[in-house]
Write a structure and sequence with these properties.
It is a single chain. The radius of gyration is 19 Å and the shape is globular. The chain has about 260 residues and is of the alpha/beta class. The strands form two sheets. A six-stranded mixed sheet has the order 5-6-7-3-8-9, sandwiched between helices. β8 and β9 form a beta hairpin. It has a domain of about 170 residues: P-loop containing nucleotide triphosphate hydrolases (Rossmann fold).
Length: about 260
């Protein structure tokens, strides 16, 4: 796979296309996302970080229009997320996928075309070309007839990235894309994401590990239900910001590790 292939920018890099203004999500009395205001520039690669329960996946679901806001708003360009769905492509966490489902790699990638097809409409020539292009760009054309369950973790991830690519959007939302991958597959994914950014595609990915975020992304959004920091990744992941965002997770770990009867 050539990570420098097809370096054609798809849009202006200086236009803010993803805007959140005071976005808040509550489940009853539980606040999952609190008063988030930020902008994601077009053509950027952004890691969304934070401890477990900080709101990373909730933020992605809100941008996708799957999670209603309690207050505030989200805009993609001038549109509400529900009206911008053709621009959005999502790759779920690996544990959310049924890897035993009998489907080929091509079948997985073809699923990316389904949202654009009408009821009972079959894929046409343009759809098949889109699928073939996505398979080629992700370097898995030779795996098209293989069952998805027979692939390595890295190959499976590339198949779902190809599905997102075949959808035809320009904003990619990835939920923990590095989870469960070996070192080689992680390096492959890093090359893919850097290639997409060079092409002007917008990537927003929930990432748990700050070290991975530093290596693979140029921008960051650090959450602790509320917004801790956003901007260039090195600035976002300063020691002070990391301590603030992960303090409660560390404290909970320390409490679990403390022997019974030990004093604080």
């Amino acid at each position: 796979m050539n990570p420098l292939k097809n370096l054609t920018r798809v849009g202006p890099s200086d236009q803010n296309i993803l805007l959140l203004r005071a976005a808040t999500v509550r489940y009853g009395r539980l606040t999952a996302l609190r008063d988030i205001t930020l902008s994601i520039p077009c053509g950027s690669s952004t890691a969304v970080l934070g401890r477990n329960g900080a709101g990373k996946s909730t933020l992605l679901r809100a941008v996708l229009g799957w999670q209603p806001l309690t207050s505030g708003e989200i805009r993609i360009g001038d549109a509400h997320p529900q009206h911008a769905r053709p621009r959005l492509a999502y790759v779920p966490q690996r544990h959310a996928i049924d890897w035993d489902f009998p489907i080929t790699v091509r079948g997985v990638v073809e699923q990316g075309r389904y949202p654009s097809l009408g009821l009972f409409q079959r894929m046409g020539r343009a759809d098949h070309e889109q699928v073939a292009g996505a398979l080629e760009e992700l370097g898995i054309s030779d795996l098209a007839s293989r069952q998805i369950r027979m692939l390595s973790g890295g190959q499976q991830q590339r198949a779902f990235l190809a599905r997102a690519l075949a959808q035809g959007g320009d904003i990619f939302l990835l939920d923990e894309p590095f989870a469960g991958l070996d070192l080689f597959a992680m390096e492959e994914l890093e090359h893919i994401l850097r290639n997409w950014e060079a092409q002007g595609r917008t990537v927003l990915a929930a990432v748990h590990d700050p070290a991975i975020a530093r290596r693979c992304f140029t921008r960051g959004v650090l959450l602790d239900t509320g917004l801790v920091a956003d901007g260039p990744i090195a600035d976002v992941l300063s020691p002070a910001n990391i301590d603030r965002a992960y303090r409660r997770e560390h404290c909970a770990h320390d409490e679990r590790a403390r022997p019974a009867g030990a004093q604080k």
